[in-house]
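Running low. Got one?
___
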Amino acid sequence: MLRNLFFSLSIAGILCSGCVASHQSAVSSDLPGEQLLKVGITTNAPPMAYRENGKITGLETEFAKGLAEYSGRKLRFVELKWKEQIPALLSGKINIIMSAMTVTDARRYQIAFADPYMVTDQVSLVRLSEYNRFSSGFTDLLTPTVRIGTVKATTGDFLVTRDKSKGLIIHYDSVAQGVQGLLDKKIDAFVYDLPMNFYMAAKYTDQGLTAVTVPMTKEFIAWGIRKDDTKLLALANGYLQEIKSSGKLQQMIIRWIPFYERLFNK
């Protein structure tokens, strides 16, 4: 039932809203007295954070604009590779990571997290013609003959690397590369976060891709902040509480990820 609903969704509304102007990857010198919110973002994970027509867009950009307004700061996006996010935060190059980061114990050791704004999990993207082969979820992927793709240093990558002792695992640099590997039949399944894999399933339905709706994990997505930046942490949690209480948080999430409401709010 969920699969039928999902494939009926139109992604046109997702693509057209929330775009913001592109910003330079490197951070220039801050002006004296200027209060900046320097947001680290990795633009390879639609619908959470990605580029369209030269602009950075996605659910996280809406959150960033809202937090900047709430905190009275000027917003500046700092586009980074995923592996650079935490080092950039710790060095002070950015103030906050707003890039669909999953909360993990290893990351908590290095940084603080604001309250989670979304529950998610890992799911696999597969070819529709082979859906029945993978319909039971993660256990189907552990067969040695199954070739799996992941994105390097992501939660899905850690999960597959830890639990799949035999068989091919290809660690891609981006979601786009992983999806292309699936289309080219270099892998049999691509494991990644639910919002992005469902988005890709919708985008590539006509090319025969689908998402397996059986979750492999239960995870939380939140914004990363330096442990010593207690002021920004309090502001982030205050903003989050405000949009939760008003109902705006759910509206924002569902606008970008329409299936989320039925999947997690039954």
About this structure: The chain has two domains: 2-119+220-264, 122-211. Residues 1-19, 21-29 have pLDDT under 50 and may be disordered. The domain at 122-211 is CATH 3.40.190.10 (D-Maltodextrin-Binding Protein; domain 2). The CA atoms of residues 53 and 185 lie 29 Å apart.
